[in-house]
Design a protein that fits this description.
The chain has 430 residues and is α+β, with helices and mostly antiparallel strands. It is built from 14 helices and 25 strands. The strands form 6 sheets. Strands 3, 4, 5, 6 and 15 form a 5-stranded mixed sheet that branches. The radius of gyration is 21 Å and the shape is elongated. The protein binds uridine-diphosphate-N-acetylglucosamine.
Length: 430
């Protein structure tokens, strides 16, 4: 199993190209199931989760053509992938694939809308919380679907005339359930109104792509999304939006190690709620035409409290990274997690590096220390593992991050990007 070896202590200086967003690419790829025409996506990141979804889509009958060469786009290597699903050859998404990645459950929306049926494995538990699928089921039932849970599978059938538009209010904001409802309602008869919908930029990106395919979606980016159903969707060409979580992660790394890094191919407005506390912590953020420049002062980090919330709040996917930064602040800070019930597994690993953190329910109290010391640590989930990398970059001595397959799910060429900015980071294979 691969490990990442980091020798901490170097400031980061240079340029890091930001990749296309994993969390945008996945639902966009799934949208290719909605049409028999070709959907072309540009700026698709090269990540384990994307590769897995390519396999899943292939099983359903999607023909996939990846550009032979990686395109060089705004300084980053982005792939263009063409997806063509002339016919859906299989409406079942099996356990062995869906259990590896929760987002693959989202195929249920397009399969049901286009083929009138879908049999998709329940995604199962997840390290960061129980993550049930009740909102998906209730939402699709509101569109007329008949749903049974059978042998660990969600078996969904559309009524004889197809799905029917409806009003549906999400009990709690859910990114995935909003994606699925937008896709399913796009091919339903009549108008669907989604209340308490997710406003995340990735939801807006999917809505724009669906509209380019002929859907009639309005209100994306607000809590109420209206979808007028159409009888069919066509192909389109769409560019995946930049990864705001990758952007925020590197910004926090610079704030912690000190240095001066320009993050290219990204947009500050995608992560305003994360950049504000970063500035409050002492980092300088300069908005550029094609990205942001981050200047960190390393030793003069101010304590800042954050609470994770759906957009426009602080993103849960940057919580672990911000906590890593706070471990070296000059005081006491609090990090409260409100989205997932078990998203503090990085706490005990950060403690191995010398961090002082105590947990009080959903709030972590972090007492900043003067320095961290490198140690072997274990990656537990995608965002937690990158928080350990950030902490390792700022720690004295050597940190070995084990189980790096979590990182490969969501961070493209992490070692390369950090090494080019002066970090001592290498992958040890085997
Ligand atoms: C997406 C992101 C993930 C991010 C999360 C929250 C992708 C691929 N993943 O995950 O990185 O951390 O949004 O911003 O885009 N819930 C239910 N029932 C449901 C659905 C959700 O109770 O049917 C709960 C979840 O357990 C969680 C909350 O709703 O507590 C929000 O989850 P959700 O927004 O659905 O997360 P994902 O879409 O899975």
């Amino acid at each position: 199993m691969d490990r990442i070896r980091i020798v901490g202590g170097n400031a980061l200086n240079g340029v890091i190209p930001i990749s296309g967003a994993k969390n945008a690419a996945l639902p966009l790829m799934i949208a290719s199931l909605l049409t028999s025409d070709t959907l072309t996506l540009e700026n698709v990141p090269h990540l384990a989760d994307v590769e897995l979804l390519l396999r899943i889509l292939g099983n359903h009958g999607v023909d996939i053509a990846v550009n032979g060469r990686r395109e060089k786009q705004s300084g980053s290597y982005a792939r263009t992938i063409h997806f063509t699903c002339r016919t859906i050859v299989d409406t079942t998404a099996p356990y062995d694939l869906v259990s590896k990645m929760r987002a693959s459950f989202w195929v249920i929306g397009p399969l049901l809308a286009r083929e009138g049926r879908a049999r998709v494995s329940l995604p199962g538990g997840c390290a960061i919380g129980t993550r049930p699928v009740d909102f998906f089921i209730e939402g699709l039932q509101a569109l007329g679907a008949i749903i049974e849970i059978d042998s660990g599978y969600v078996d969904a059938k559309a009524p004889s005339g197809g799905l029917v538009g409806a009003h549906f209010t999400f009990p709690k904001v859910s990114v995935g359930a909003t994606h699925v409802m937008m896709m399913a309602a796009s091919l339903a008869r009549g108008t669907t109104v989604l209340k308490n919908a997710a406003c995340e930029p990735e939801v807006v990106d999917l809505a724009h792509c669906l509209n380019a395919m002929g859907a009639k979606i309005s209100g994306m980016g607000t809590r109420t999304i209206t979808i007028e159903g159409v009888t069919s969707l066509s192909g389109a060409r769409h560019q995946v939006l930049p990864d705001r979580i990758e952007t925020g992660t590197y910004a926090m790394a610079v704030a912690m190690t000190g240095g001066d890094v320009t993050l290219t191919g990204t947009r500050a407005e995608l992560l305003a709620s994360a950049l504000a506390p970063l500035e409050a912590a002492g980092a300088e953020i300069i908005h550029l035409d094609d990205g942001i420049r981050v200047i960190g002062h390393g030793d003069a980090i101010r304590p800042v409290d954050i609470v994770t919330e759906p957009v426009p709040g602080f993103p849960t996917d940057l919580q672990a990274q911000f906590m890593a930064l706070m471990t070296r602040s000059q005081g006491i800070s609090h990090v409260t997690e409100t989205i997932f019930e078990n998203r503090f597994m990085h706490v005990q690993e950060l403690a191995r590096l010398g961090a002082k953190i105590s947990l009080h329910g959903q709030t972590a109290r972090i007492e900043g220390v003067r320095s961290l010391r490198g140690a072997p640590v274990m990656a537990t989930d995608l965002r937690a593992s990158v928080s350990l990398v950030i902490a390792g970059l700022a720690a004295e001595g050597e940190t070995l991050v084990n189980r790096v397959y979590h990182l490969d799910r969501g961070f493209e060429r992490l070692e390369e990007k950090l090494s080019l900015c002066g970090a001592v980071v290498e992958r040890i294979s085997g």
